[in-house]
C-alpha cells in the first residue's frame, strides 16, 4: 500500500501521497476534476510562479514576510519555473472555481518545497504555509488572470518569431519563382496569366499582416489586475503593496506590465483576451488558405495541377505504392481549424462572466494558450518541412498556360471584349491556340501578338504599350 500523510482543511481530513509536493487542496481537486484529462499549460504554471516571486519580494520589502522565508519561497518558485515539479502540478486544465485549484496547487508545491529547504518536512507547513505565506495578499482572482496575460504575451512573442521566419521563407520563394509564368485561376477556373512568384508574394504579404497584428496586440495584455485581490477592491492587501507589486512583477518578467487604473473593471472583464483570440483566428484563416493553395498547386502530381513539388516527408499510403501525400499542409490546416474552434471557446468563456468575476477563466486560458502553441508549431512546421523545400515545375506551368484560354484576356485592350470572347469560344471548340487564331484571322501581326502575349506583358502591373491598330 502506498504511504500517505494526512492533511486537514475546513472540510476535514484527507489522505495525500506521502512523497507528493502538493497537499490537500490539490488532492481534492484531483478527485473532483478529471474532465479534460490534460494538465494546465506549462506556460501558465511558470507565469504564476513568477507572480508568486513578485508578491513574495514585495511583501518582504514592506516587512510582511521575513527574508529567510521569502528566500525559500523564491527558490521554490524558480524550481517550478525550471519545470522540476511538472509531475506535481497536476490539476486538470478544466476546473471549477475560476482557477483556484491551480492557484492552490502552486501554493502547496511552493510551500512544501520551501518548508523542506528550511529544514521541515512535506505537509508540516510550520515554517512556510501555502496561504499565510505563499499566497499572502493575493487571491486567485488577481493571480490567475495576471499570470494568463504574462503567458499569453510570451506566447505571442514566440508566434511572432515563427511568423517572421515563415514570411522570410515565402519571400525567398517569391524571388526564386519570379520568372515562372503560370495560369491564374478564379473560382477554380482558368483566368489569366500570373507568376508563381506573385503567388508566394501574396502569401508572404498575408503572413506579414499577421505578424504586425500579433506584434500590436501584445499591448492589449499588458494591463494587469494584480493587487486587486478578490474583486478588485484590494481587500485584505496593504495599500502600499497594491501600488508596488506590479513594479516588482515588471522587473521579474521584464515585460512592460502596468497596474490597471480600475482594478474592479479589470477583474470583471476579459474582452482583451477575446480581441487577441480574434487576431489568432485571422491568422488561422490565412494559414489555412496558404496550406490549401499549396496542396492544390501540388495536386497530382500527374493527374492534378502539379505546378509545385512539395517535399516528400513520409510514405503516403499503406496500400498504394509510391503515393506521397501533402501531410504537412494537411496538419497545418488542422492546426488552423483547431485555433478557430478555440476562438469560439474563448468567446463563450469570456461572455459567461457574471457580476464581479469570470469563473470560466480555466477554459479561456486553455483555449488561448493552446491556440498560441499550436499556431506557433504549425508555422515552424510549414516553413521547415514544406516551404523551404518547395520546387516549381516550370514545364507543367507552361503547359497549363498554353492549353488554356487565359492568355485571351491580354488581348482585350487591343481587340475589345466581344472580339476576344469570340476568339475564346472558337479556341475552345477547335482546340486551336489564341495566338494561332489571331494570326490566321489576320487580327494582329506576329510581332503584335508576341508583344501582347509575352510573359512580361501578361504578368506586369497593367500594360504600357499604346493601343495597337488591328492588321488591315
What's the total count of β strands? Answer: 8
Helix share bin: 55-70%
General shape:
elongated
Contiguous uncertain segments of 5+ residues:
none
Q: Pairing-aware structural class of the strands and helices? A: mainly alpha
Q: How many structural units, i.e. domains?
A: 3
The biggest beta sheet reads: 2 strands, antiparallel
Order the strands across the largest sheet as they lie in space.
1-2
Structure, explained:
The chain has about 475 residues and is mainly alpha-helical. It has three domains: about 130 residues, Fumarase C, Chain B, domain 1; about 240 residues, Fumarase/aspartase (Central domain) (Fumarase C, Chain A, domain 2, Up-down Bundle); about 55 residues, Ribonucleotide Reductase Protein R1, domain 1, CATH 1.10.40. It is built from 18 helices and eight strands. A two-stranded antiparallel sheet has the order 1-2. It has a two-stranded antiparallel sheet with strand order 3-4. Helix 8 links the parallel strand 5 and strand 6. Helix 2 runs antiparallel to helix 3, helix 3 crosses helix 4 and helix 10 runs antiparallel to helix 11. The longest helix has about 35 residues. The mean pLDDT is about 95.
Amino acid at each position: 500500500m502506498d504511504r500517505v500523510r494526512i492533511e486537514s482543511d475546513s472540510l476535514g481530513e484527507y489522505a495525500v501521497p506521502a512523497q507528493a509536493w502538493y497537499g490537500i487542496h490539490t488532492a481534492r481537486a484531483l478527485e473532483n476534476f478529471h474532465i479534460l484529462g490534460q494538465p494546465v499549460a506549462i506556460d501558465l504554471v511558470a507565469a504564476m510562479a513568477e507572480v508568486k516571486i513578485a508578491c513574495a519580494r514585495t511583501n518582504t520589502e514592506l516587512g510582511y514576510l521575513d527574508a529567510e522565508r521569502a528566500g525559500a519561497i523564491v527558490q521554490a518558485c524558480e524550481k517550478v519555473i525550471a519545470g522540476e515539479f511538472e509531475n506535481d502540478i497536476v490539476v486538470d486544465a478544466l476546473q471549477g472555481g475560476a482557477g483556484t485549484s491551480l492557484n492552490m496547487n502552486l501554493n502547496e508545491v511552493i510551500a512544501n518545497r520551501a518548508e523542506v529547504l528550511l529544514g521541515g518536512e512535506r505537509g508540516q507547513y510550520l515554517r512556510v504555509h501555502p496561504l499565510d505565506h505563499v499566497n499572502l495578499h493575493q487571491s486567485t482572482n488577481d493571480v490567475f488572470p495576471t499570470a494568463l496575460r504574462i503567458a499569453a504575451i510570451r506566447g505571442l512573442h514566440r508566434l511572432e518569431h515563427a511568423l517572421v521566419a515563415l514570411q522570410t521563407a515565402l519571400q525567398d520563394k517569391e524571388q526564386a519563382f519570379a520568372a515562372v509564368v503560370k495560369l491564374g485561376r478564379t473560382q477554380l477556373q482558368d483566368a489569366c496569366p500570373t507568376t508563381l512568384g506573385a503567388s508566394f508574394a501574396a502569401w508572404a504579404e498575408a503572413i506579414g499582416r499577421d505578424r504586425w497584428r500579433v506584434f500590436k496586440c501584445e499591448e492589449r495584455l499588458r494591463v494587469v489586475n494584480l493587487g486587486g485581490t478578490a474583486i478588485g477592491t484590494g481587500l485584505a492587501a496593504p495599500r502600499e503593496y497594491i501600488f508596488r507589486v506590479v513594479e516588482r512583477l515588471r522587473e521579474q518578467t521584464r515585460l512592460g506590465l502596468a497596474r490597471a487604473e480600475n482594478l474592479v473593471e479589470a477583474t470583471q472583464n476579459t474582452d482583451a483576451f477575446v480581441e487577441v483570440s480574434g487576431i489568432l483566428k485571422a491568422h488561422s484563416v490565412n494559414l489555412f488558405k496558404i496550406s490549401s493553395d499549396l496542396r492544390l498547386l501540388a495536386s497530382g502530381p500527374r493527374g492534378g495541377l502539379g505546378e509545385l513539388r512539395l517535399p516528400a516527408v513520409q510514405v503516403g499510403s499503406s496500400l498504394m505504392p509510391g503515393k506521397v501525400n501533402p501531410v504537412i499542409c494537411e496538419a497545418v490546416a488542422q492546426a488552423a481549424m483547431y485555433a478557430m474552434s478555440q476562438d469560439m471557446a474563448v468567446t463563450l468563456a469570456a461572455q459567461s462572466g457574471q457580476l464581479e468575476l469570470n469563473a470560466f477563466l480555466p477554459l479561456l486560458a486553455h483555449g488561448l494558450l493552446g491556440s498560441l502553441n499550436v499556431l506557433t508549431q504549425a508555422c515552424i512546421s510549414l516553413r521547415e518541412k514544406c516551404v523551404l523545400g518547395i520546387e516549381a515545375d516550370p514545364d507543367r506551368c507552361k503547359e497549363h498556360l498554353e492549353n488554356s484560354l487565359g492568355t485571351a484576356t491580354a488581348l482585350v485592350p487591343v481587340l475589345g471584349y466581344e472580339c476576344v470572347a469570340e476568339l475564346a469560344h472558337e479556341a475552345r471548340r477547335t482546340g486551336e491556340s489564341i495566338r494561332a487564331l489571331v494570326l490566321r484571322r489576320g487580327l494582329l501581326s506576329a510581332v503584335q501578338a508576341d508583344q501582347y502575349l509575352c510573359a512580361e506583358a501578361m504578368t506586369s502591373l497593367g500594360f504600357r504599350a499604346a493601343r495597337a491598330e488591328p492588321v488591315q
